[in-house]
Write a structure and sequence with these properties.
By secondary structure, the chain is of the alpha/beta class. About 30% of the residues lie in helices and about 25% in strands. The chain has ten helices and 13 strands.
Length: about 290
């Protein structure tokens, strides 16, 4: 069984739901307390043993490259001023032994197209896909770590899912299942943004995937789907004719940071457990000011 060493981060989207904040700054760089969304996703990937990070990006996302690059001027100034703790934080944004690669998505043609853009860098290996605006607090174990354990047992593609209200199925890919063992479900159907009547279950797909390289053959022949985009969901549906694909109902809490409400909920949750400000922030919330 090949270990998962590569992860794709599709970050070429325009982030229109957060305009004007995202006019000049990528949505993936929006901070949750003191770290940008993309860093939380990278930390989750690294925790699962991944050491090659592939960012599918666009011309407006230079800030992401800069964030994971060295900043000699900043590091020199921090060292000169004796700010060793901050210097360590900056240097550990990208851990030693972890590399970054950037590939452009020439048009924003959907998640499936973004994954396909990274094919030349995968080299016929299993890989992960992480969507940074799905921030998942894995509590005791990060979501992708949980999924990597399951992959080592099965060797098959695994998709993260959570229970969703049936009234919101039109916002998710939704899976139907045949059987399950604990939280691991065998998928027999997957539909992109179905109506409540069309939804095969209440298990919605969230932004964590472990995929076998066979997905690329399906992506290459997947036609435009919902929204005029190449949907990863459609390619996964086609792959099911050739391979067993599983859904993992992860332990943890997912925040939809692609929406304003989810972003604010995540900010409050992470601020409350922040080691530097958590206790004081909790007192502030309990003070009746808001």
């Amino acid at each position: 069984m090949k270990p998962i060493k590569k992860a794709i981060f599709p970050v070429a989207g325009l982030g229109t739901r957060f305009l004007p904040a995202t006019k000049a700054s990528p949505k993936e760089m929006l901070p949750i307390v003191d770290k940008p969304l993309i860093q939380y996703a990278v930390e989750e990937a690294v925790a699962s043993g991944i050491n090659e990070l592939i960012f599918v990006t666009s011309s407006s996302k230079r800030a992401i490259e800069d964030h994971f690059d060295k900043n000699f001027e900043l590091e020199t100034k921090l060292a000169k001023n004796g700010k060793d703790e901050l210097l360590t934080i900056v240097r550990e944004i990208l851990p030693k032994g972890v590399s970054c690669a950037y590939i452009r998505q020439p048009e924003t043609l959907g998640l499936g197209h973004a994954v396909l853009c990274a094919k030349p860098l995968i080299n016929d290996e299993p890989f992960a896909v992480l969507l940074a605006d799905d921030l998942i607090d894995g509590s005791q174990e990060p979501c992708l770590v949980q999924m990597a354990h399951q992959f080592q047992q099965t060797g098959n593609s695994i998709i993260a899912v959570q229970e969703i209200p049936l009234s919101e199925t039109n916002k998710y890919g939704v899976v139907g299942t045949t059987d399950h063992k604990d939280r691991l479900f065998t998928i027999n159907k997957i539909v992109e943004k179905p109506s409540q009547q069309e939804a095969p279950s209440n298990l919605g797909v969230v932004g964590r995937y472990i995929l076998t390289p066979s997905i690329f053959a399906q992506l290459e022949k997947t036609p435009m789907g919902k929204g005029g985009e190449i949907q990863l969901t459609d390619a996964i549906s086609a792959l099911m004719a050739h391979e067993v694909i599983y859904a993992w109902q992860f332990h943890g809490t997912r925040y939809d940071c692609g929406s304003k409400l989810g972003y604010l909920q995540a900010t409050i949750a992470y601020a409350l457990k922040h080691p530097e400000i958590g206790a004081e922030f909790k007192r502030y919330l309990q003070s009746g000011i808001i």
